[in-house]
Design brief:
By secondary structure, the protein is mainly α. It has a single domain, classed as Four Helix Bundle (Hemerythrin (Met), subunit A). Helix content is 52%, strand content 4%. Helix 1 packs parallel to helix 4, helix 2 packs parallel to helix 3 and helix 2 runs antiparallel to helix 4. The two termini are 25 Å apart. The mean pLDDT is 88.
Length: 185
């Protein structure tokens, strides 16, 4: 995966974050039990964790969504966080690995995790705030490739994702990507 595709995922999600209004912060999202503010906190915290952790090979993306990282300037905070991830991956050893709470993960997989997070949670945020939640095709396809590899076995979902929702064979790449992770397209 190219750094440009990762940048594209963050820029797409950034546009969605930037269009969230203050009156939507307490609205529910497709992420069970999470409000719009909690989801943005997760997105910001994960990007900050990756930006800080990738250069040293140790990422702890566990974010307490009850601690507000979004504040009143959620778009600016997200936009300060994500460029650091792209920069960190630009210099990371593509053949190396990064330590996560669940164990070492090959960088070829780890670098796609934030693309997946940006695409899926960008779609979640868009759906919760009345925006177009369709993930661009190239991002949806890259997300689906990773999720099929990591989460085809229901045991690997570890409560993070609901069971897959059936969609028609001719569904869009975006609908297939979100439905695979238990979200209603």
């Amino acid at each position: 995966m190219s750094d440009e595709r990762l940048r594209e995922a963050f820029q797409w999600a950034s546009g969605i974050v930037g269009r969230v209004t203050a009156d939507q912060l307490d609205d529910p999202t497709r992420c069970e039990g999470w409000t719009v503010r909690m989801l943005m906190t997760h997105m910001i915290g994960a990007a900050e964790a990756f930006a800080a952790g990738v250069p040293v090979g140790d990422v702890s993306p566990q974010v307490d969504v009850k601690i507000d990282l979004a504040g009143d300037a959620w778009g600016a905070r997200y936009d300060r966080a994500w460029p650091g991830v792209v920069e960190a991956w630009a210099t990371a050893d593509p053949d190396g690995s990064t330590q996560f709470p669940w164990g070492p993960t090959p960088n070829a997989i780890a670098r796609v995790l934030l693309l997946m997070e940006s695409a899926i949670h960008g779609s979640d945020l868009a759906a919760a705030t009345g925006q177009d939640s369709r993930i661009p095709d190239d991002l949806a396809i890259a997300t689906s490739e990773l999720t099929a590899m990591l989460y085809s076995d229901p045991a690997n979902r570890a409560g993070d994702f609901a069971p897959e929702i059936a969609v028609p064979d001719d569904a869009s790449a975006s609908d297939k990507a979100v439905a695979f992770l238990g979200r209603q397209p």
